[in-house]
Design brief:
single chain; 21 strands; 6-stranded antiparallel β-barrel; alpha+beta; 4 helices
Length: 365
């Protein structure tokens, strides 16, 4: 056989192979199918929080001067009204004494002007002095009154400055760092220290609008009040807290709303500026759990493939209210006895009749 004749069968075989139809893609024999899990009666959610003291204030100098005395130490507990600092008290008290003396002088001048005016009035009644002299006595009396008003104002200002020189605690609390020691010069408004009242601590945290509607909205049952605090070291704080305030508006930027929890702090464990997480047990009622992997999204709506009576896959919209681990917490859209496809959704189309392989939903599904 010539080489030309030997090549012919090979060419024909190659042509037949190229013209054969492509092999059908391998199909899955069955799809796992399950019914939703019944959600627990409550579940725990954690929210990041920063702690704030019940009351905290910055103690600042009310006037420029020299720190003449420091009556407290850093970390010291003080009571309301306790003397903390003295700033240029000697100079300011001297100014107050001068103002008091000026006020007393103005009072004496006013008394003299009254006597003069009364005498002039009697002389005018006897026609001994002219009308102009009586008018002049009236003017002197008015001027004396004005000088007394001015002297009283100056005295009041000096008294205020003198009181400002003695800085007192506005409420009971603990003194923080003292940056300016004895003899330091401070300007008006300069920070002397801060005082914090940590007998109670406030924890602020935010939750989504869906979570608010599920557990805190008016008319949705008794709102959650008790919360617990996990500290930065992972330990749970011994005292339970109480949610006692809520913002009145949803933040349009984040879709969240702020809440405030109040924690007792008798031992002083919690400090202003501390961090942690607030743990809240949220009631679920008659909610169901559906694995997040069993859902798909179309235009911000969540769907599952539920099976109808004929075993055909139908896209069903569900309404999750929150997430619980790897599950959606579902309140509507799917019944407790309805079956849905657990996984392999990318191989399913609307109306497909599938071979169902029943599975039970476990915590890891």
């Amino acid at each position: 056989m010539t080489p030309k004749h030997r090549l012919l069968p090979l060419v024909l075989a190659t042509a037949v192979a190229c013209s054969a139809p492509p092999a059908a893609p391998e199909q899955s024999d069955s799809f796992p199918v399950a019914t939703p899990r019944l959600a627990p009666s409550t579940y725990e959610r954690s929210y990041v929080t920063n702690l704030s003291a019940r009351r905290r204030t910055e103690v600042r100098a009310r006037a420029r001067g020299i720190v003449e005395a420091v009556h407290v130490d850093e970390g010291q507990a003080v009571k309301e009204g306790d003397l903390l600092f003295v700033v240029s008290a000697g100079e300011l008290e001297h100014e107050l004494e001068k103002a008091r003396a000026a006020r007393k002088s103005a009072e004496a001048e006013l008394q003299a002007a009254r006597v003069e005016r009364n005498n002039t009035s009697m002389l005018r009644e006897r026609n001994i002095v002219s009308e102009s002299e009586l008018a002049l006595a009236d003017a002197r009396l008015q001027a004396a009154r004005a000088r007394l008003d001015e002297a009283r104002a100056v005295e009041g200002q000096a008294d205020l400055a003198a009181r400002y020189s003695r800085v007192r605690a506005p409420f009971a609390g603990v003194v923080n760092r003292i940056p300016h020691k004895l003899g330091a010069t401070v300007d008006e408004g300069e920070l002397l220290t801060t005082i914090t009242d940590t007998s109670e601590m406030l924890a602020y945290f935010r939750l989504s609008e869906q979570e608010y509607l599920a557990a805190w909205a008016p008319g949705r049952g008794e709102p959650v009040r008790e919360v617990h605090l996990r500290l930065a070291d992972g330990q749970t704080y011994s005292q339970a807290g109480t949610i006692d305030a809520m913002e009145t508006e949803i933040d349009t930027g984040t879709g969240s709303i702020g809440l405030r929890a109040r924690f007792p702090n008798p031992a002083g464990v919690l400090l202003h500026g501390g961090s942690g997480t607030v743990s809240v047990k949220v009631p679920l009622g008659e909610a169901l759990l559906v694995p997040q992997k069993s859902t798909f999204q179309v235009q911000d709506q969540i769907y599952v493939y539920a099976l109808d009576a004929d075993g055909a896959a139908r896209a069903r919209r569900i309404e999750p209210v929150s997430r619980l681990g790897e599950f959606f917490v579902v309140r509507s859209g799917l019944g407790p006895d309805e079956k849905f496809i657990v996984e392999g959704l990318q191989h399913v189309r609307e109306g497909d009749r599938i071979a169902a392989r029943p599975v039970a939903l476990a915590a890891g599904n």
